[in-house]
Amino acid sequence: MRRYGKHTDEDDIRSRPNRKGNRPRTHIRPKHEDAAEGMVLTVDRGRLTCLVEDRVITAMKARELGRKAAVVGDRVAIVGDLSGKKDTLARIVRIAERSSVLRRTADDDDPYERVVVANADQLAVVTALADPEPRPRLIDRCLVAAFDGGLEPLLVLTKSDLAPPDKLLELYGALDIPYVVTSRAELESGEAVERVREQLDGRITAFVGHSGVGKTTLVNALVPEERRRITGHVNAVTGRGRHTTTSALALPLAGDEGWVIDTPGVRSFGLAHVDPSRVIHAFPDLEPGTEGCPRACSHDEPDCALDAWVEEGHADPARLYSLRRLLAARERTDGD
After folding, report:
1. Residues of the chain with pLDDT under 50
2. How far is 108 from 178, CA to CA, in rounded Å?
3. Residue 244 confidence (pLDDT)
4. Under a CB-based contact definition with an 8 Å cutoff, are residues 100 and 118 in contact?
5. If you count Cβ atoms within 10 Å of the first and of the last residue's Cβ in the chain, which end, N or C, has fewer?
């Protein structure tokens, strides 16, 4: 057996940095100063479809990001093959700070929150006026998630040919939420599409609603070609087909005038992650009245200072009622 002395100068000795024989770990991360900026369009089984300039590419998350996950709407830094050619794969090495987040939990007892969309300006809550019947409690929960996450809400009411919108609009009148009412005939003629588009231009809008309300039909009418281009790219890379509404998908409006993000249909919208103190920020006329509230006030208890604030004429009683209805939505189920 060949033995080496203590001071050997043989150059065929393999030096191992540690007992496991692998490279030592370091906390120093590469800066990737040459990384390109991109936007996440959709996520499919660990593969992220991103837009870099005018190219749709596929990427995966770099190991150095750890547990931090990128979601649709994230602005990211990407390195690697950015050609967008078939079977190429890039790496996401940084995720930029988010301006807003739409989050939900599976139910109100689930402590694990899921970020559905990042950096959206607006949340379009789509609900049918009939077939299926409207679910005001689910709408309330979506509005709470929007206010909590920093998104401005928009109501899109479909199927007005089956039922009038007056009763539902009266319920949300005090919130001063913009709305669009559409019918099936207007959707087919394109008239409804143009009215909705007026509310979307220049903004990133996430669409949410439960199955059957016509959400994806409306999104398809807004951006018919882009869905095929982006989902076709996903299928070509992964080799697997996937229904387009099983994961969120960002689609550009024509003329670089905004984005729409189609999200999967929801049966429930858990709000376990929502802090009631953040919802009040969406009510600037009521927020000053909370200065006299007891610590950790729920704003729906006998000592709440908002009652006196409204009685003194500082705000409309209907606004306080709406605030408390939304906060109470956190404690109710989505069943009706």
Report:
1. 1, 4, 8-13, 234-245, 333-336
2. 28
3. 42
4. yes
5. N
Q: What pLDDT does 334 receive?
A: 46
Which residues are paired to 155 by β-bridges? 125, 179
Q: Which residues of 219-242 are buried (b: 16+ CB within 10 A; e: fewer)?
A: bebbbeebbeebbebbeebeeeee
Determine how many CB atoms are found less than 10 A away from the CB of residue 55. 14
Is the distance from CB of 206 to CB of 144 less than 8 angstroms?
A: no
Cα–Cα distance for residue pair 19/52, rounded to 1 Å: 42
Based on the number of CB atoms within 10 Å of its own CB, is 46 exposed (0-12), middle (13-18) or buried (19 or more)? exposed
Give 115-124 pLDDT, tens digit per residue.
Answer: 999 999 999 9
DSSP letter, residue 267: S
Q: Please name the amino acid found at residue 161.
A: D
Altogether, the residues listed in the chain come to a count of: 336
Q: Is 69 exposed, middle or buried (0-12, 13-18, 19+ CB in 10 A)?
A: middle
Nearest-angstrom CA–CA distance, 225 and 250:
13
Nearest to 130 by CA among 87, 159, 171, 101: 159
Residue pLDDT, tens place only, 62-76:
988 888 899 999 999
The 10 Å Cβ neighbour count of residue 5 is 7
308: Cβ–Cβ under 8 A, 6 or more apart, which residues? 289, 292
CA 149 to CA 121: how far, in whole Å?
A: 10
Which of 159, 122, 160, 153 minimizes the C-alpha distance to 139? 153
- Specify whether the CB–CB gap between 58 and 89 falls below 8 A: yes
How far is 52 from 43, CA to CA, in rounded Å? 15
